[in-house]
Amino acid sequence: MRAKLVLFVFLILVSTAMAQALPFTNEQASSGEAVYNEHCAECHGQNLMKQGYPDLAGNKFTNKWSGKSLDELYFIISTTMPQGHPGSLAKKDYLDVTAYILQQNDYKASGEALGPDNMQNAVLAQATEPNSSGHGMNSSSSETDKTEETASENSSEQSSENAGSSSDQGQDASAPKTLSLSGPNQDQLNAASDSSDSWLFYNHGYSGERHSSLDQINTDNVIDLQRSCTYDFDELGGFQGTPQVYQGVMFVTFMNKTVALDASNCELIWEYDYTTVSPVVLETNRGVALYDGKVIRGTPDAHLIALDINTGNLIWNVPVEDSSLGYFLSSAPIVWNDMVFIGDAGADWGIKGKMYAFDVNNGSKIWEFDVIPTGDQAGADTWQSADSTSTGGGSMWTSYTLDKDAELLYISVGNPAPDFAAEYRPGDNLYTDSVIVLNANSGELEHYYQQIPNDDKDYDTAAAPVIYQQDGTKMVSVATKAGYLFTYNDETQEELYRVPLITVENQDEPVTEEGIRVCPNWSGGSQWSGPSYMDGTLFVNMVDWCGTATLNEVRYVKQQLYLGGAMELEPNANAVGVTSAVDAASGEIKWQFKRQGTRIVGGITTTDGGLVLTGDMLGNFYALNAEDGSLLYMDNIDNAPIGGGISTYSIDDTQYLAVAAGNSSRGATGVTAMPARIVIYSLR
Questions:
Q1: I need a surface site. Which of 416, 462, 578, 633 has the fewest CB within 10 A?
Q2: What are the tens digits of pLDDT across the range 330-378?
Q3: What pTM was estimated for this model as a whole?
């Protein structure tokens, strides 16, 4: 009887949804199709659904907008699109393209033209039958209705050995290699910075130095590099991690996928596909933590999961936050003394960020730290409007740095929210745009360095800092999206210097409704990749690129960008990728390598062979001379944008370089989307 009642209610809901007419005309939708094809299809695809970008049709779209007003949908479209040039279209174009999106989701045209007077009272229901384009909607989504137990059970069955394709020396994935790894253990993690046979962390070691002692490939013979193998993944979207290697096995992550490859020949060993159980706003993932036979990573629906390092089978799955509020976990966690450290991301969607420690054995929470303090917490008085803290922002985007001897955890915290409307959240807005230093055992605040108080231009401190000894003094350096390299004496907490490595313009001027030109724009500076440190020199990647920041209405719409303004980017041809060498003691710029018309955003790696390794968004992989920045070697990786880092390691006395190429995240404007790939190089 209950089943019949449920079915009856379901049919009523279906009938109601399909009967819904919304205020737009078929003529508007027809005009909107032309607008969409010209300004939107490149990112979102001809059928409004393209991997790596938010769906504008189908279950994900209708579930996201169900119960929200048409006015909210129009507000998001008109203030955040097109990518890189928000608000640049005519009002009629935005109305028409909104009508087209509604039509493609099977909503019926009422015959009343869509306009500002009839949006607020129109609430979106869910269409239920596929239209002629095959988009199709359901009254509920299995993705959002699954229980956590079901997700865990289903996910454990999803390890696969037969996906993707390898070329060059890659072997047939139908005969997977059998692994019998038990580590890495704590001693191996402690020694990771000096390891030559592994690349265990996103940034190589706890200190974040991204430097290898390997020198088989050096300034004299790097010209003889050749591709050993390539593994192509059927994946579009963000690909911004650094390939991590342990005992000859490479671990790579995507939005939901985790892959293990043979690090010498690109042979697929295992693959795990995670199934999200709640809404997702961004799908970028930057890597894993490896420890005690486990591969640990965050998910786009804000879960923390552990996989068996040998099989890819799920060991445990812990929900961290409610992803329907914009939370996700994009950063590569680190492990120390049986604790996994990871923090929330999602500031640009109005979250209230936290940093966490979890038990590596079962995922239970050990401590948490609020990066947006409230009440009697230290720093709460820097939010003069207490109401603004509920959506205050603060993302942990990339990875973390640890002083294992002092037992201190160094965490870069991103921008406050809303991004541009600083007057909505008066005060310095701690601990956004900061490096916070926590007691790794307890999560208590030791000290902090704020780079930009009350940020109104989305100048995140996003990349992890690097810690190092300079003339016997412990130093901390961090690069930011504002275009500066900041360096501090960590013993006295004194700022030693902040040096601009690219054009800096109007950063102290407030954003206005008329708009203000700023340099860099929010896609410039150092995005998710921090400095590499070698022998008293810091090597830093940045993008020199300007734009116009404009103030707009502050409006919170659940699961949507919470910006309070917009950033229009200057033409892609104006962007300049810059790699700089900086004296770590003085901040003096030693040399700069520049590439006009492209961006250098991926991780930078240095070696004892005198090399600086990096790549650009046109797919060019570079090896530079660390002494003077001269170009020693370049190879174009199939025009696949390089947004990830380069790792280097030795197997059987052969040094390899592994490059992550194919980054086509929604921020990768002006480049052709290419599927992700790993390319491994060695000497001829």
A1: 633
A2: 999 999 999 999 999 999 999 999 999 999 999 999 999 999 999 999 9
A3: 0.90
